[in-house]
Design goal:
With about 260 residues, the protein is an alpha/beta fold. About 45% of the residues lie in helices and about 10% in strands. The chain is built from 11 helices and 4 strands. A 4-stranded parallel beta sheet has the order 2-1-3-4, with helices on both faces. Helix 1 links the parallel strand 1 and strand 2.
């Protein structure tokens, strides 16, 4: 019996804790449900709050170490505007230690708001490639991570199923960037679809293994998170409930069966 390797954010995390105290979220998450459906053991790397950088590198590191026991990789991609600053921007620990920001016991992965402000203002926003074109930087970073996992699985001859589970690349997701950069990001749907689909990497994604491809509604694609409206914990907590995880597992199962047939 081989293993399923699952990687994702809070929508995948086997140890997820609801933001509303008292909610029972001890039900099996979609990787475990899928494992029972396919009669495979599960290695679940999902962790709340992680970025696509972390999701991809975690999966790659595990594949390099245990490729001989893994039959299937399942990735639930998350919000593309998240960044793993430490890994990607070679953050100097002393700069953090002596900055106005401090590590504290907060809800956002124990980093204080001041620390996040420092990362945004002094690192991301002043990074040349990000400042010149924040939208394309987010786009290209997402495609990079998708192809990193896809190409590794192809190299190792391991099956792959992935797609957006939390987050998307739809234009409405980036209203916060419009406010930050003014008119620079005021596109219509057609212009947005063109920008998202212009890189060669977009066409290198295997649509048989990526549910929802070609990703954008305007291109005929979709993201799974928008189909979870009736399967969420509550109005205050948009994470999938028990039925939601069963729904997600079924999507992975259908895509897997169709892609290997």
């Amino acid at each position: 019996m081989g293993f399923i390797l699952a990687s994702g954010c809070s929508f995948t995390d086997p140890n997820f804790i609801s933001r509303e105290p008292g909610n029972d979220v001890s039900y099996p998450k979609w990787p475990e449900i899928l494992g029972k459906r396919l009669n495979k053991k599960v290695i679940n790397l999902g962790k709340s709050g992680v970025s696509n950088d972390k999701i991809a590198t975690g999966a790659i590191q595990k594949l390099i170490k245990d490729f001989d026991i893994i039959d299937l990789v399942c990735v639930g991609w998350t919000q593309p505007e998240r960044y793993t600053v430490w890994n990607d921007y070679n953050l100097n620990a002393n700069n953090v230690r002596y900055s106005k920001g401090v590590f504290g016991a907060g809800t956002l992965d124990i980093k204080s708001k001041d620390f996040y402000d420092l990362m945004w203002n002094d690192l991301l926003d002043k990074n040349v490639s990000f400042k010149l074109s924040p939208l394309t930087a987010i786009r290209d970073n997402f495609y990079k991570n998708v192809l990193l996992v896809q190409n590794m699985c192809e190299l190792l001859n391991i099956d792959l199923v992935h797609g957006f589970v939390c987050g998307n690349l739809e234009i409405r997701r980036f209203n916060w960037l419009e406010k930050h950069y003014g008119k620079e990001l005021q596109y219509n749907e057609r212009e947005w679809a063109r920008i998202m689909s212009e890189p060669a990497e977009f066409y290198e994604i295997d649509g048989n293994k990526f549910f929802g491809y070609p990703i954008l509604n305007a291109l005929g694609g979709y993201n799974l998170s928008e189909e979870l409206n009736n399967y969420r914990i509550s109005k205050q907590d948009a994470h999938p409930n028990k039925e939601g995880h069963e729904f997600i597992a079924e999507k992975y199962y259908e895509t897997y069966k169709n892609s290997v047939s």
